[in-house]
Design a protein that fits this description.
Layout: H1 3-14, H2 23-26, H3 28-37, E1 45-49, H4 55-62, E2 66-71, H5 74-80, E3 86-88, E4 101-107, H6 116-126, E5 127-139, H7 146-156, H8 166-174, E6 178-191, H9 192-197, H10 204-215, H11 221-224, E7 228-230, E8 233-247
Parallel strand pairs: 1-2, 1-4, 2-3, 4-5
Antiparallel strand pairs: 5-8, 6-8, 7-8
Helix pairs in contact: 3-4
């Protein structure tokens, strides 16, 4: 099966449980950091790429912005469309005119994209002069936890295209189209047991293995991520980086 079809299949299965499957998806501090990263106030036009069920876009919408979204998976787009206009289409081919949006947002999806630079080119194209691109991703805290985190991510996510650090993701952003003007960092506490239980694309054996990899993580990963098991639930901290970038041409 083509990788794109595998992504559609995976997230089609997760559409109904996705919004509550991980703390980061609805974490208000994390979402607010995306709004703050724009450095702007409404009114204005926002495009959320790979929007999933539209949690970030909803908050922009409720804050007074005009929001549109795109997502590869039809079922995800249908969920987001309950809150703001959203269509199902690849982020590599955005069906909007040049210079249409004040803000473009892409959260926790760049590592899945077949052609990340093409998506960045599209974000660059649809942004108005002076517009802001907000790109966020969960990344290692440091080089010390990076190898084990990559092992966990590749065990969990078969569609992972590339494992990114803060530095390598910044390099992708600034390679051709953007200049990073600000970086925000935020730690979000995650319940790995719940995350796996609400991942129906995983077999029970795969779910148990991811939980084991976190619970039995070696040092220094264990200390850096503050791993603990409470009432049978595996908990750890995730490190988020939120880039605020402007077009190099501006």
């Amino acid at each position: 099966m083509h990788k794109m079809n595998k992504v559609i299949e995976q997230f089609g299965k997760r559409a109904e449980t996705y919004s509550g499957s991980a703390n980061w998806i609805s974490d208000q501090g994390l979402i607010q950091s995306h709004i703050d990263a724009t450095g702007s106030k409404p009114p204005g036009y926002v495009l959320e790429l790979c929007c999933g069920t539209g949690m970030v876009g909803r908050s922009f919408h409720f804050a007074g912005w005009s929001v549109c979204g795109v997502d590869l998976t039809q079922k995800m787009a249908e969920e987001a469309n309950r809150f703001y206009p959203c269509i199902s289409t690849p982020a590599e081919n955005i069906p909007f005119l040049d210079n249409s949006f004040d803000v473009v947002v892409l959260r926790q999806a760049y590592f899945l994209l077949d052609d990340g630079q093409k998506v960045l080119a599209e974000a660059h194209r649809v942004l108005k002069p002076g517009g802001v691109f907000v790109l966020s991703q969960t990344v290692p805290f440091s080089s010390e936890d990076s190898p084990w985190l990559e092992h966990i991510h590749r065990t969990k996510q078969a569609q992972l295209r590339e494992f990114f650090t803060e530095e390598s993701l910044k390099g992708q952003l600034e390679r051709e189209f953007f200049r990073v003007r600000d970086i925000r960092r935020l730690s979000v506490r995650e319940n790995i047991t719940r995350w796996m239980a609400l991942a129906p694309e995983q077999t029970p054996e795969q779910q148990a293995e991811v939980c084991r990899l976190v619970a039995e993580a070696p040092e220094p990963y264990h200390s850096i991520h503050k791993v603990e098991v409470v009432d049978g639930q595996v908990l750890e901290d995730w490190n988020w980086v939120i880039f605020s970038a402007v077009r190099k041409s501006d």
